[in-house]
Amino acid sequence: MPLPRPPARRLAAALAAAAAVLCAAATGLGAEPPTLEGTVAAVVDGDTIRVRVRGFETPVRLIGIDTPETRDPRTPVQCYGPQAAAMTTRLLPVGRRVIVRGDPTQATRDRYARFLGYVFVAGRPLAPDRSVNFTLVRTGRARVYVYGGVRFAAADPYFRAQHRARRARAGLWGPPCNGDTTLPDPSTRPAGIAGSAPGGGACDPNYAGACLPVYPPDVDCGQIAARNLRVVGTDVHPLDVDRDSVACEG
């Protein structure tokens, strides 16, 4: 006796459901995003931190945003970079427990092996507008960043927050940057040595961000008005105590 044929509508629905399952499996959509839970080990700059998870540190790049550079040896400290890094440090002090959630529309890690994710303070809602990433955009400390033309999942509220910050001229959208963060940050322009006369001699080429006298004589950070100088040659004075190419940090 032949089996009864299922109604065409039911068959079509079953096929559609099967196709959706296969598509989700192939693309990874619908899967839980990768998540890290740990404590802040260090703030590298405005959009990069290090998180300690089960005794190991991993670099984390805050997804969907970009802050002005402060540690790229190829460029000067960019306008509003120190302020952005200071805000991230205030929101994420060392030891603070955090949850870092990935985004199913993006890679898990970038080419520098940094985990890409939204950073939340543990114990607070895991809502798009409660992440540290979003706070940095909302306050004008960061701009929205879309990598490779693939919009991240929370892009729409981020762009709306950026529009409001820009209209209010908040943070990097106001003076002195006015949205152009490729300018050198005013705090790193040559500031000379405390108590010295302007133009009192040649500047040591080993440092950028302040005019230090050519060695010898030796100077220390207490004699220098500027902070966060970049060591671009040999640290002859020496000022870079932790050897991260940034001298007289503060």
What's the SSE blueprint?
Elements (H helix, E strand, L loop, with lengths): L7 H20 L7 E11 L2 E6 L2 E7 L2 E2 L14 H11 L5 E5 L13 E7 L10 H7 L4 E2 L10 H13 L39 E2 L20 E3 L14 E2 L3
Parallel strand pairs: 3-6
Antiparallel strand pairs: 1-2, 1-5, 2-3, 4-7, 5-6, 8-9, 9-10
Structure, described:
The protein has helices spanning 8-27, 81-91, 132-138, 155-167; strands at 35-45, 48-53, 56-62, 65-66, 97-101, 115-121, 143-144, 207-208, 229-231, 246-247. By secondary structure, it is α+β, with helices and mostly antiparallel strands. The chain has two domains: 35-173, OB fold (Dihydrolipoamide Acetyltransferase, E2P) (Beta Barrel), CATH 2.40.50; 189-250, no CATH class. The strands form three sheets. Strands 1-2-3-6-5 form a five-stranded mixed β-barrel. The protein has a three-stranded antiparallel β-sheet with strand order 8-9-10, with no helix packed on it. It has a two-stranded antiparallel sheet with strand order 4-7. A hairpin with a 2-residue loop joins strand 1 (35-45) and strand 2. The protein is globular and about 60 Å long.
